[in-house]
Amino acid sequence: MSAPPIALLFAGMDTNQDHIVTLSEAQQGTEMEWLSVSGAKSDYRTAIEMTQWSSTALGDPNALPNPIAFDSNLDGRITPQEFRTRLIDIFETFDRDHNGHLTRAELLAASEITNRMDQPTPQGSNRRAPPPRGRQ
What we know:
Strand order of the largest sheet: 1-2
Distance between the termini: 35 Å
Order of helices and strands: HEHHHHEH
Radius of gyration: 15 Å
Structural class: mainly alpha
Strand content: under 5%
């Protein structure tokens, strides 16, 4: 069993080294990660800049979440809010018991979640989420 790169990123946010990452630690760590993303503009980052960050912070330019996953409005720019929202959404997804803490066990189990995120949906669809309400 191994943890996915994004889980290792969260593990590195454990500032008090108690082997539990709290939501507060993740929020602070997310702010620090945003500042570590090199970019010419302070109010957004490009997909290329995010790919470079992924290569450095996650160890692989193709690691999940990819730049498109951060760009919620698909305008080609990742804002600090989009970055924060995506990482905290992932934190909350990994937090299986919804107590605002990620344990090492939850971080290891995160590989099951990221594997599902990376699987195509049936019938060759590229959709990674359920269809909108009322549509099948």
